[in-house]
TrEMBL record:
One GO CC annotation: cytoplasm
Family: Belongs to the BRAT1 family.
Origin species: Culex pipiens pipiens (Northern house mosquito)
SUPFAM superfamilies per record: ARM repeat
Protein name as annotated: BRCA1-associated ATM activator 1
C-alpha cells in the first residue's frame, strides 16, 4: 500500500514552460536549421505550431538573430535555387508578425527587405507562399507607414491577382478578401478617396470591361463562356464578401458609394445577367444583387457635394426583389427563387436593428418578410395539394386561407407563375419542396410567427405519409407505403425539419396546436414495418423530442394512465424496434425509452406502469448483456440506470434480474470504455437507492476501487469517483448528518432512542465515518487518484471530494480534537468502541485480515434484513429502523411465526424481503481487489492530506500537461528531426 500513498506525493515540474533563455537558444538553432537546404521537416505542422507559439514569445521576433535569419533567407530567395515552399511560407508568416509593429516595419524597410521579398514571391508556385504574402500585407495595413507603402508599391494589385488566380485556395480567398476590405476602409478613413475609387475600379473591371463580349465580333456575346464566367464569378464572390462586411460593420463606407453609384454596379450586373443562361452563375448574380440592394439601404458614405444620390427606399428594394424573381421565373428557374428568398432573410439579419420596417401595405399590415416566406413555402404547399385527395380536408383549406390573409396581390401572382412553371417544365415538385424545406430550416433566425407557419406546413405534409386509418389499430392498411418508398427524401427532410424547428424555437401547444399531433403521427409512422431504417431513426428521435416538449405538466397530473391516447402504443413500438436488425434503430429506441423513463420519474408517472405492462425491461437487460454493438450496450445500461431509481420498476421487474453479477462482469470482459462508464453509473444508482447483499458488497467495492484508480478510460474513473463520493455521503448521513451539519439531537440506532449530539459524540461519529471509509478502501482510492499522472479531470474531482470531506471534519475541529490530542472514549461508553454499527473491529486498533473479511457493514451499506440473524425483538426494531418500508414489520412477523425457535438459522436468501435488495452471487475473484486500498488508515490519509497543497498540485499537473505542447518541447522535436537527418546522411557515407 506504500505505492498508493507515495503516488499521491509525486510532483511534476512546477514550471511547464522552459526558461526564455532556453527557448531563445533552441529557437536560434531552429532558424539555423531552416536555412539548411537539405533539411526536410518531418511534420509540416511543426512550422505552423512555431508561428502560433511566437505570439506568446514576441521578444524572439525582435532579436538580432531573427533579422539575420531574414537577411540570409532573402539571400536564398534571390539565388537561383529557391528554398522549399514550407520554409518560404514560414518566413513570410514570421515576417507578418514582425511588420505588424510600426517600429519593426521601419527597421525592416531600412534595408528594403519587404520590397525585395515581394519581388521574389512571384517565383514561387506554392499556395502557402501566396497566403503568407497576403498575411504580410494584412499586417502592414494596420498602421500609417504600412498604408503608405501599400499605396506606393501597389501591393493591393498583387493581392487581387491572388484572389482571381488559378492557385487560389479557400484560405487565400478568405484572407485576400479581408485585406481588400480593410484597405478600402482604412484608405477611406484617412480620406484617400481617389485610391479607394481606383481599387474599386480594378475590382469591377470584369463588369466594366465587359469580358463576356466576343473579341472577334463587335456586338457578339460569349454566352456561358467558361473563362469569362470564372473571372466574373470570382469578382462576384469578392463583392459578396465586401457587402457582407459592410452590412455587419454598421458604418457608412465611401467604397460602397463608388461601387454602387460611381460605377453603377447593379446596372452592369443586369447586363451580365441578361447575357448568360447558366443557372448556377445566375444564382451568384442574384445573391450579389440582394446584398447590393441591402447595402444601398444605409451603408453608403455619400459625398457632401452629391445632392442627387440618396439611400435606397424600402419600396424600391421590394420592387427590385420582385424583378429578380420575375426574371428567374421567365427562365423557368424555381430553385433560384428559393435561394433568393433564403438570401433575403440572411441579408436582413446582417442589418439587425438597422433594417427598415417590413410593412408593405400599412393599412392591411402586410409584411415583406411574410411574402418571402410564402414564396419559399409554395413548393411545400403545392406538394400538400398534390398528395391530398381531390377535395382537400378542412384543415388544409383553413391553412391556405391563413396564408392568403398575410399575402399581397404581387405574391399571389408570383405563386401562380410558379405553378405554371411547374406544369410547363414538368418539374419534380418534391425536389423543390426538399430544397425549400432545407432552406427554411437553415435560417435559425426566422421570427417566431413565421417559424410557426413553416412548422404547420411541414406537419401537414407529414400527415399525408400516414394511412387514413391508424396503422397501430389496423395493421392491414398499407395504402401509404408506396408513397413512403417513392418519396423517401421528402419524408426524411420533413422529419429533420420538424426536429430542428422544435429544438430552435421550443414551440408549445398554445402557439401551435399541430405540435400535439406529432407523437401520434410518429408512432403511427413507426408502426409501418416497411419504413426504411434511416427514417426509423429520424422518427424515433422526433418522437423523443416531441414527448419531451409537448406533454403538458397539468395534463400529466390529471391522468393516472395513458390508455385511450396515442401514447398507449409507444411501448409496443419501442419493443418492436428493440428487435430491429439495424443497430442505429436499436440505439435510437433505447434513447427514446430512456427519455420516457426519465419523464416518468416525476413529470408523467403513468409511464411507469406502461413500461412494465409492455415487458420491455427484460429486453433492455438482454441488450445490455448481449448486443453486438457497444453503443447499444451503453444505451441499454443508461436505461437501466434511470429505471433503478424508480421504485415500481425495481420491485416488479429489475429486482428479479441478475443485474449486479453482470455489472461486475462488465469490468472484466468489456473492452469499450463507454460501456464501463455506464456500468459504473448503474452500480451507483443501485447502491444509492437499494440494498446490496453482504456477499456482493465486497465485489462492488473492489471493482469500483480498481476502476477509479486503474481504468484506462478517464470518464470511467470520474464516474467511479462519484460512486465513492456517494459512499462517503451515505456514511455521514448514517451518523446523523443532515445537509452537511449535525443536528442537536438524532435517533441512535445503537441505543434505539433519541440522543443529544454533544461535541464528543460528534467527534466519535466522525471517527466512525473515517474508519468505515478506510476499511472499504475509499481513503486509499482517493490517495491513488490524487496521484493520477494522466487525467487532470480525475485529479480535480478527487480534490473536490477530499475538500468536501475535510470541510465536514474541520467544521467540528476534528483534526485538533481527535488527532492532535488523541482523545480516548470513556470506559463506560460501549458505543464509542463500536466503530461502525454491526462491525467488530476496535476504534483504535486496526483489524486483522480475518477480522476484516468477517466484518459486517453498517446499515449505511445494506439492510440487516439481508443478513443472517436471530429473530428477536431487537432485530425486529433494527429492521424497522433500517428499512423504509412499514410492511417489513408484517413480513418479519410472518417469518417469525413460521420458523420454530429450534429450527436452523435462516439464510440471507430466505431473509431477503420481496424487492428489498439486489441479489448477487459471491465473487471471490474480486473480493480482495480493494484490500490494498483498505490498508490506508485514517491517520495516514489525514497526514497525507495535511501535507498536500491541492492548488499547487493541480497547477503542477496543468503545467506538466502543457509541457507536452510547450514551445520548448516543440523546438526540441524540430531539432531532433534535424540532427537525426544529419546522422542518417552521415551514415550513408
Amino acid at each position: 500500500m506504500a505505492n498508493v500513498v507515495e503516488s499521491a506525493t509525486l510532483k511534476h515540474p512546477d514550471d511547464g514552460t522552459p526558461a526564455l533563455e532556453d527557448c531563445t537558444d533552441k529557437f536560434n538553432k531552429v532558424l539555423a536549421a531552416l536555412l539548411n537546404r537539405n533539411f526536410t521537416i518531418n511534420n509540416d505542422v511543426y512550422l505552423e505550431m512555431i508561428v502560433s507559439h511566437l505570439g506568446e514569445h514576441r521578444n524572439l521576433l525582435k532579436s538580432a538573430e531573427m533579422f539575420v535569419f531574414l537577411d540570409d533567407a532573402l539571400g536564398q530567395w534571390e539565388s537561383e535555387t529557391l528554398p522549399s515552399g514550407d520554409v518560404a511560407a514560414f518566413t513570410l508568416q514570421v515576417l507578418a508578425m514582425i511588420v505588424g509593429d510600426e517600429w519593426s516595419f521601419a527597421r525592416v524597410q531600412s534595408k528594403k527587405l519587404l520590397d525585395r521579398f515581394q519581388d521574389c514571391v512571384g517565383r514561387f508556385q506554392h499556395p502557402s507562399v501566396k497566403l503568407g504574402h497576403v498575411l504580410v500585407l494584412k499586417a502592414v495595413s494596420r498602421h500609417a507607414m504600412g498604408l503608405a507603402w501599400i499605396k506606393s508599391s501597389g501591393s493591393w494589385r498583387i493581392c487581387l491577382d491572388y484572389y482571381n488566380g488559378q492557385l487560389q485556395t479557400i484560405f487565400i480567398t478568405k484572407e485576400a478578401s479581408l485585406f481588400i476590405y480593410e484597405v478600402l476602409e482604412r484608405f477611406g478613413m484617412v480620406g484617400d478617396y481617389e485610391l479607394v475609387k481606383e481599387i474599386v475600379r480594378n475590382i469591377l473591371s470584369p463588369l466594366l470591361d465587359v469580358v463576356w463580349k466576343s473579341p472577334d465580333q463587335e456586338h457578339a456575346v460569349l454566352v456561358d463562356d467558361e473563362k469569362s464566367q470564372r473571372i466574373v464569378t470570382s469578382m462576384l464572390n469578392l463583392m459578396c464578401t465586401l457587402f457582407r462586411k459592410l452590412l455587419v460593420s454598421n458604418k457608412r463606407s465611401r467604397a460602397a458609394y463608388h461601387i454602387l453609384i460611381t460605377f453603377r454596379f447593379e446596372r452592369n450586373l443586369w447586363c451580365y445577367a441578361d447575357a448568360i443562361q447558366d443557372h448556377s452563375v445566375l444564382t451568384k448574380v442574384w445573391e450579389t444583387h440582394i446584398l447590393a440592394n441591402c447595402t444601398r439601404l444605409g451603408c453608403m458614405d455619400i459625398p457632401a457635394e452629391d445632392n442627387v444620390v440618396e439611400d435606397l427606399k424600402f419600396e424600391k428594394y421590394t420592387i427590385n426583389f420582385l424583378n429578380y424573381v420575375n426574371f428567374s421565373l421567365r427562365r423557368g428557374n424555381i430553385p433560384n427563387v428559393m435561394l433568393m428568398a433564403q438570401m433575403h432573410h440572411h441579408a436582413w439579419n446582417l442589418m439587425a436593428d438597422r433594417a427598415p420596417e417590413e410593412v408593405v401595405l400599412k393599412n392591411q399590415n402586410i409584411k415583406f418578410g411574410d411574402q418571402i416566406l410564402l414564396l419559399q413555402l409554395f413548393p411545400v404547399v403545392y406538394e400538400i395539394k398534390s398528395l391530398t385527395s381531390k377535395d382537400p380536408p378542412d384543415y388544409i383549406e383553413k391553412f391556405c386561407m391563413r396564408l392568403y390573409d398575410i399575402s399581397c396581390e404581387f405574391t399571389v401572382r408570383l405563386m401562380y407563375a410558379c405553378r405554371d412553371v411547374f406544369v410547363a417544365y414538368n418539374t419534380v415538385v418534391a425536389e423543390m419542396a426538399i430544397k425549400s424545406i432545407q432552406g427554411i430550416v437553415s435560417m435559425n433566425t426566422l421570427p417566431r410567427p413565421r417559424a410557426i407557419i413553416a412548422f404547420q406546413a411541414f406537419v401537414y405534409v407529414l400527415k399525408e405519409f400516414l394511412p387514413d386509418m391508424c396503422y397501430l389499430e389496423n395493421q392491414c392498411d398499407f395504402s401509404k407505403t408506396d408513397l413512403i418508398l417513392s418519396k423517401p427524401n421528402l419524408l426524411a427532410a420533413i422529419i429533420n425539419a420538424l426536429h430542428s424547428l422544435i429544438q430552435n424555437y421550443k414551440f408549445n401547444w398554445k402557439e401551435c396546436i399541430e405540435s400535439t399531433t406529432l407523437v401520434n403521427f410518429m408512432l403511427n409512422l413507426l408502426g409501418n414495418p416497411n419504413l426504411p431504417p434511416r427514417h426509423v431513426v429520424l422518427a424515433l428521435k422526433l418522437t423523443q423530442l416531441s414527448i419531451e416538449h409537448f406533454l403538458a405538466p397539468n395534463l400529466a397530473l390529471l391522468m393516472d394512465n395513458i390508455e385511450g391516447s396515442g401514447l398507449s402504443f409507444v411501448g409496443r413500438i419501442i419493443y418492436q424496434r428493440l428487435h430491429d436488425s439495424n443497430w442505429e434503430v436499436r440505439d435510437s429506441a433505447l434513447e427514446l425509452l430512456a427519455s420516457i423513463v426519465e419523464i416518468s420519474e416525476i413529470k408523467f408517472p403513468s409511464f411507469q406502469k406502461h413500461v412494465l405492462d409492455c415487458d420491455i425491461i427484460p429486453v433492455v437487460e438482454a441488450a445490455a448483456k448481449n448486443d453486438s454493438e457497444p453503443y447499444v450496450r451503453a444505451s441499454a445500461l443508461r436505461c437501466l440506470t434511470l429505471m433503478v431509481k424508480i421504485r415500481l420498476l425495481w420491485e416488479h421487474s429489475l429486482v428479479k434480474l441478475n443485474l449486479m453479477n453482470h455489472l461486475i462482469t462488465v469490468f472484466d470482459n468489456e473492452s469499450e470504455g463507454v460501456v464501463r462508464r455506464e456500468a459504473v453509473n448503474t452500480i451507483r444508482e443501485i447502491y444509492s437507492n437499494h440494498k446490496i447483499q453482504a456477499q456482493c458488497l465486497d465485489a462492488v467495492f473492489s471493482v469500483l476501487a480498481f476502476s477509479a484508480a486503474n481504468d484506462l478510460y478517464w470518464e470511467v474513473k470520474l464516474n467511479a469517483l462519484v460512486f465513492w463520493k456517494v459512499v462517503m455521503c451515505r456514511q455521514f448521513q448514517h451518523q446523523g448528518m443532515i445537509d452537511g451539519t449535525f443536528p442537536a439531537v438524532t435517533f441512535s440506532k445503537e441505543h434505539k432512542k433519541i440522543i443529544t449530539l454533544t461535541n464528543k459524540e460528534i467527534l466519535l461519529r466522525l471517527r466512525k465515518v473515517l474508519n468505515e471509509l478506510s476499511l472499504r478502501g475509499c481513503l486509499g482510492v482517493l490517495l491513488a487518484c490524487l496521484g493520477d499522472d494522466c487525467d487532470l479531470e480525475v485529479v480535480r474531482q478527487t480534490v473536490e471530494i477530499i475538500r468536501r470531506l475535510m470541510c465536514y471534519l474541520n467544521k467540528y475541529n476534528y483534526m485538533e480534537e481527535c488527532v492532535n490530542r488523541r482523545v480516548e472514549p470513556a470506559s463506560d461508553d460501549r458505543s464509542a468502541f463500536v466503530a461502525v454499527i454491526d462491525t467488530n473491529y476496535s476504534e483504535h486498533k486496526r483489524p486483522s485480515d480475518h477480522q476484516l473479511k468477517s466484518a459486517q457493514r453498517n446499515d449505511a451499506d445494506y439492510s440487516s434484513g439481508n443478513v443472517p440473524c436471530l429473530i428477536n425483538s431487537d432485530e425486529i426494531i433494527d429492521s424497522i429502523v433500517n428499512l423504509d418500508d412499514v410492511n417489513l414489520l408484517s413480513i418479519t412477523y410472518k417469518h417469525n411465526m413460521s420458523v420454530s425457535s429450534s429450527g436452523p438459522e435462516p439464510t440471507a436468501t430466505t431473509m431477503t424481503p420481496a424487492g428489498g435488495g439486489c441479489h448477487c452471487e459471491a465473487s471471490k475473484h474480486h473480493n480482495d481487489l480493494f484490500r490494498k486500498y483498505a490498508e490506508v488508515t485514517p491517520e495516514d490519509f489525514l497526514k497525507q492530506v495535511a501535507a498536500t497543497d491541492f492548488d499547487e498540485l493541480i497547477a503542477g499537473r496543468e503545467s506538466w500537461l502543457r509541457k507536452t505542447e510547450s514551445f520548448g518541447s516543440l523546438l526540441d522535436d524540430v531539432l531532433f528531426s534535424y540532427y537525426a537527418a544529419e546522422v542518417n546522411e552521415a551514415d550513408c557515407y
